[in-house]
Q: What sequence folds into this?
């Protein structure tokens, strides 16, 4: 996919929307429970802020690495840095990661949709339209993905803000007090769990070379992380304030339960869980599409085959992987494994590659 094609370029705003969309996925509904289970205190909102700062540092390293090769994706320039054999091996690992991300997101959609919206509907009937529409979208390239993320995110933000404001009706500030009653250790212990939820900056390894103004990538990631941290912090504070620490750990989808815990008679919709699910499914659609795109580009560039053919080839594999977890607990375990894998891959890989490329004088 040549850089010269206008359709394959994305603006700074679209880059921000892509990174935010890749971060705001299944974790939005589950983070309060996951974080509180680790910390066992109401101070977990502090850890999400610290995790955001750590992810910004990681994103900055990724940007500096990718900016040295402004016309190449990670799959291409890693072969220049480490040699073709090792580079292709690293590329395959990254492809597997993005494939697994896509599989995790599609299975999450199946579980939540079947439980809350379409009870009794076969899993394939939920996921098939979702995947085929995403395939059609990805055929248009990163430019189309950027525009759809740019359209969907403001809708998501508006509905999320509405639910947060209405959630104040069941919010109890005392559930968040006293601050740091157990000291800073529970907060520091929870940083890893919250940092895993904020993974998403790694997509810049593939999409930065499509930016019209790659020099503004740091600004894009700063805005993206700021928005994601604000979303997740609000989710944590509202869920703990509404249910308390003890109540949050007993709920599978705490933020969804928050949306179900209040009614507003004077609005068109009295119950908001369906509205929340609709925007959440749109966000999952974005995340799945970005994962599918990044994996397909990788296979295409590693094997030198057609990008369109790879899209059709990967789709059934993603579905098969999504069916491996036998129940919801195994799905959550799969998500934890993915998060740990992302933590190891993208915290340990970019910096050595950046140093080697500078030492060897590669790139610009």
A:
């Amino acid at each position: 996919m040549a850089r010269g094609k206008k359709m394959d370029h994305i603006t700074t705003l679209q880059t921000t929307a892509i990174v935010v969309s890749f971060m705001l996925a299944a974790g939005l509904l589950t983070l309060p429970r996951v974080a509180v289970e680790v910390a066992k205190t109401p101070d977990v909102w502090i850890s999400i802020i610290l995790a955001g700062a750590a992810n910004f540092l990681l994103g900055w390293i990724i940007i500096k690495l990718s900016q040295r090769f402004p016309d190449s994706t990670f799959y291409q320039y890693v072969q220049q840095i480490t040699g073709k054999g090792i580079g292709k091996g690293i590329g395959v690992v990254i492809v597997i990661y993005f494939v697994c991300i896509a599989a995790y997101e599609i299975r999450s959609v199946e579980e939540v949709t079947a439980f809350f919206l379409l009870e009794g509907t076969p899993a394939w009937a939920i996921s098939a339209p979702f995947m085929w529409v995403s395939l059609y979208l990805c055929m248009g390239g990163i430019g189309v993905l950027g525009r759809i993320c740019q359209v969907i995110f403001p809708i998501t933000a508006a509905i999320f803000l509405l639910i947060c404001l209405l959630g104040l009706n069941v919010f109890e500030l005392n559930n968040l007090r006293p601050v740091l009653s157990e000291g800073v250790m529970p907060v520091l212990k929870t940083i890893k769990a919250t940092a895993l939820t904020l993974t998403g900056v790694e997509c810049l390894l593939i999409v930065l070379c499509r930016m019209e103004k790659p020099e503004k990538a740091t600004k894009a990631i700063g805005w993206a992380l700021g928005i994601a941290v604000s979303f997740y912090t609000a989710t944590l504070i509202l869920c703990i304030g509404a249910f308390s620490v003890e109540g949050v750990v007993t709920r599978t989808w705490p933020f969804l339960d928050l949306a179900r815990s209040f009614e507003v008679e004077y609005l068109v919709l009295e119950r908001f869980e369906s509205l929340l699910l609709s925007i959440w499914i749109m966000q999952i659609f974005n995340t799945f599409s970005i994962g599918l795109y990044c994996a397909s580009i990788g296979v295409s560039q590693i094997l030198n085959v057609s990008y369109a053919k790879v899209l059709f080839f990967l789709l059934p594999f993603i579905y098969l992987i999504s069916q491996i977890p036998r129940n919801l607990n195994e799905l959550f375990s799969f998500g934890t494994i993915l998060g740990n894998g992302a933590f190891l891959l993208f915290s340990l890989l970019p910096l050595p590659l950046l140093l080697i490329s500078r030492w060897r004088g590669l790139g610009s």
Notes: Residues 6-359 form a domain with the Amino acid/polyamine transporter I fold (CATH 1.20.1740.10).
